[in-house]
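Known limitations

Files may contain more than one protein. Parsers should not assume a single record per file. Below, a two-record file is shown to illustrate correct handling: read the sequence, read the token line, then continue until end of file.
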Amino acid sequence: MKLLHLADLHLGKRVHEFSMLEDQRYILKQILEIMETEQADGVLVAGDIYDKTVPPAEAVQLLDDFLTNIAGRKIPVFLISGNHDSAERISFGAKLFAKSGVHFASGYQGKTEVVTLEDDYGKVNIYLLPFVRPVYVRQAFPELAERIVSYQDAMQTVIGHIDLNRECRNVLVAHQFVTGAERCESEEIQVGGLDNVEASLFADFDYVALGHIHGPQWILRETIRYAGTPLKYSFSEVCHQKAVTVIELRAKGDVGIRKIPLRPLHDMRKLRGSYEELTKRSVYENTSVEDYVQITLTDEEDIFDAVGKLRVIYPNLMKIEYDNRRTGKTAESAAAEDVERTPLEYTKALFTMQNERAMSPKQEKYLVNLIEEVWEDGL
């Protein structure tokens, strides 16, 4: 059985105020072509389908077109909600869509949905686990609420309540931060970095299709894998090779993995040099000037209307910054002051400064729960 693993489409996303909608339309068309060429038996979409809980109409239409094309090819598709998605909106019409082979799993309510496919080797169980927070799991299992404090506790409870047939091939589609994964600037850091879970929780699954982290990578073993975004959404991703992950499930324990590179409508690049250097025809001619670019100017003095002037040559200039003796000193000073980064660390530091002692384990546990509740209410 051949499955395509996608994640983090973030339809409707804007990067530095540039709409990525046409880029997304272009890349989804390319994915449909790959789907047909590979003769895929199913498509896994591991969360963050939209970039906002209330997506723009154009993003909703784009997803509709994409799913209609997949359904027209009679290929089942399995989608879960991510932390950027609204579970209620994603779940609308789910039962109706399932009749066309489009399977949505939105909010977690105590049961992990499963869809079973079959091939020459037998059954393949595909478990759909949308993004979960401890508060969701506490609500689903009130009798265990006191034990469910961290994301690790929550995920352990969820996995423990899956009735897994270990003799079958089992695939999990999930959207969480697994310890050891490398983050990018375009990702949302949950609760100051308290959202991680251990990869060992997924030991009994033949393949784990993960979303949430934007850089393609595997954790612990090659079959616990982040597909990454289909497009670059930040300049921290300029070195990424975005791809569609192809999983071939043969006999139990025999999993093949390939990656098919994706070619974006506009690539994302970093340029560096003086204004004079970067505006020389010999420097920019025969290059992809319509790529999304970040330019670092090394001039000691600010260039008047640098953005406007440079966009004559680089129309998709997204970001400009300076790197010179003046900004270097400022950056060093800021780096020295910016030691505490997470909400938990900031609060602990403030507590220590005000009380001249560190928090007790009980106080820290209370703080973690409080941050969790505040974060949840704010979404």
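...continuing to the second record:
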Amino acid sequence: MAAALSLETQIYQPFQSGFLNQILSKHTGETVLISGHSNTVPALVNQLVGDNVLEELGESVYSKIFMVSLQRIGDGRITVLNF
């Protein structure tokens, strides 16, 4: 995706203290794509929406995209796309 849009990729540590706050403050009002693993993406989504709505994904799950809309961390809405 980054190559298609001529964007620079950034490596992140999903459980680093303040990670989501940094992303939100740097990209307020923008669209952000976070790609991760089955054991990190659900936890990030849960933090963003403020509820434990997702469990860890199985290692063979590659068909989901989680779209989260929010104004502040802990008060987000999730849309799950399956392909």
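Parsers that stop after the first record will miss the second one. For reference, the second record is described as follows. Helices lie at 19-26, 41-49.
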